[in-house]
Amino acid sequence: MGTPVCRLFMQREKMIKKTVLNETHRQLGAQMVDFGGWDMPVNYGSQIEEHHVVRQGVGMFDVSHMTIVDVQGPQAKVFLQYILANDIAKLTRQGKALYSCLLNEQAGVIDDLIVYYLNDDNYRLVVNASTRDKDIAWLEKQAIAYEVTIGERPHLAMVAVQGPKARQKVCPLLPERLGFSAAEIKPFNACWFGEWFVGRTGYTGEDGFEIILPEDKAVDFWNKLIEVGVKPCGLGARDTLRLEAGMNLYGQDMDESKNPLESGLSWTVAWQPETRDFIGREALDGIKKETGRDKFVGLLLQEKGILRGHQKVILPDGTVGEITSGGYSPTLERSIAFARVPGHIGEECEIEIRGKVKKARVVSSCFVRQGQVQIKI
Amino acid sequence: MANTPDDRKYADSHEWAFLEDDGTIRVGISDHAQELLGDLVFVELPEVGRTVGKGDECSVVESVKAASDIYSPVSGEIIAVNDSLEDEPELINQAAYDEGWIFVIQPVDESELDELLDNDAYLGSIEE
């Protein structure tokens, strides 16, 4: 008997996507998980060890699942000025990068992204993998009124090499000319040569590069990095690193039901010049005037236990908030979290964990940067 | 292949149960389970003296990835817990069948152990 056709169809629909490095991860003994439809390594052994390697030495992550979109055309700049909450007019030097939210008309966050300025009619966006379909649909819909093309680049791989030793390990392995320019670029800048593109950016709070390269070069590049001592790290460590670094994760810390002001992302909204209209501006102007808005804070658990997303935050006056992302901080050896809470929160609060109440302290959401603890323990 | 000693029984929810000489039952989680969970960072131990039924949630282990309930493999009274796990939850990663034990139970009915899986059956269940 054969497999019913309907089941075959379902399997095809649910087919999990793989990056070009998938087989390499398996050979390295990675534990694989379904991450937003992609078969990705969560760790290759101890996640905590992988975390420390990035803080103290150098580790690398396969982030080829992320979506690269080139926005090109004579109106690329005005188009991006209209669809992004941050203002790409700030990008005046070639290769400069900017973090921004992509908002809907209600100022809900469709996605967060990095935009690189290549030249006046060519910008590169790197958006989340899990939001790929709706992002592309949104960009294409908005692009109709502009002289721009939205070009996805699915055949490029992406490797993030992160840690204080990242630059010294990566530069000698880049195609010759690129190695020299990569050694010179400042944080949040990029350089490129052919299809190789190197940004001094990351999602860990450490120095390092995110390298976009042709898919057929990725396995060789990855193996060369291993040879020089760069340790493969999974998405598990990437999550604890970004949490310590105070970096939001789309889908947990913000989504379309939340605006940037209640997600700790006010700093990414360019209010000036007032003459710049962008999608979500009108809604944001209204929200900005409201009083009693929720705020986004960091939490440090004062007792044993682990903070997790969706746990209830209780203020001394009985009002409540919610943890958006939480977990164990390997650097602090304590549990930390981000939470959306009533604006009048003080320094102390309590967290409800499985029916029990534990004490937590309100702190800045940037816990660790460049290997250094940023808060008072 | 997963490490599953044949001197004890297993629940399909990944706990192991070891019958001590004095008739008490020591409980922990399998090596396969600790591997799936990843680095353990917190264990919420049951209260000594608590009476539990077979299959009751009685402890929680938290790894860097997630929190998982531990179910009692038999009915009885919790008579001891592994306090070392409070400061060293990683003992479960390092020695799931020895120093990483979680609690000891005085069973109401020792024959409940027969309802659990032997090592081959457990191995079969996780390799499906």
Write a short abstract of this structure.
The complex is a heterodimer of chains A (377) and B (128). Chain A is of the alpha+beta class. Chain A has helices at residues 5-13, 22-27, 47-56, 76-83, 132-143, 166-170, 176-184, 215-227, 235-244, 281-289, and strands at 31-35, 38-43, 59-62, 67-72, 97-103, 109-119, 122-127, 149-152, 156-162, 190-193, 196-199, 208-214, 231-232, 295-301, 312-314, 320-329, 334-341, 348-353, 356-363, 368-369, 372-373.
What would you note in describing this structure?
- Chain A is an alpha+beta fold and 377 residues long.
- Among the domains of chain A are: 13-64 and 155-244, Gyrase A, domain 2 (2-Layer Sandwich); 291-373, Elongation Factor Tu (Ef-tu), domain 3 (Beta Barrel), CATH 2.40.30.110.
- In chain A, 24% of the residues lie in helices and 32% in strands.
- Chain A contains ten helices and 21 strands.
- Chain A has helices at residues 5-13, 22-27, 47-56, 76-83, 132-143, 166-170, 176-184, 215-227, 235-244, 281-289; strands spanning 31-35, 38-43, 59-62, 67-72, 97-103, 109-119, 122-127, 149-152, 156-162, 190-193, 196-199, 208-214, 231-232, 295-301, 312-314, 320-329, 334-341, 348-353, 356-363, 368-369, 372-373.
- Chain A has a six-stranded mixed beta sheet, sandwiched between helices. A six-stranded antiparallel beta barrel of chain A has the order 14-17-16-15-18-19.
- In chain A, strand 16 (320-329) and strand 17 form a beta hairpin.
- The longest helix of chain A has 13 residues, at 215-227.
- In chain A, 42% of the residues are buried.
- Mean pLDDT of chain A is 95; it is low at 1-12.
- Chain B is globular, with a radius of gyration of 13 Å.
- In chain B, strands 1-2-3-9-8-5 form a six-stranded antiparallel beta sheet. In chain B, strands 4-6-7 form a three-stranded antiparallel beta sheet.
- The longest helix of chain B is centred in the last third of the chain and has 9 residues, at 119-127.
- Chain B has one domain (9-109): Beta Barrel (OB fold (Dihydrolipoamide Acetyltransferase, E2P)), CATH 2.40.50.100.
- The model of chain B has no long low-confidence stretch (mean pLDDT 95).
- By secondary structure, chain B is an alpha+beta fold.
- Helix content of chain B is 19%, strand content 33%.
- The chains are: A alpha+beta (377), B alpha+beta (128).
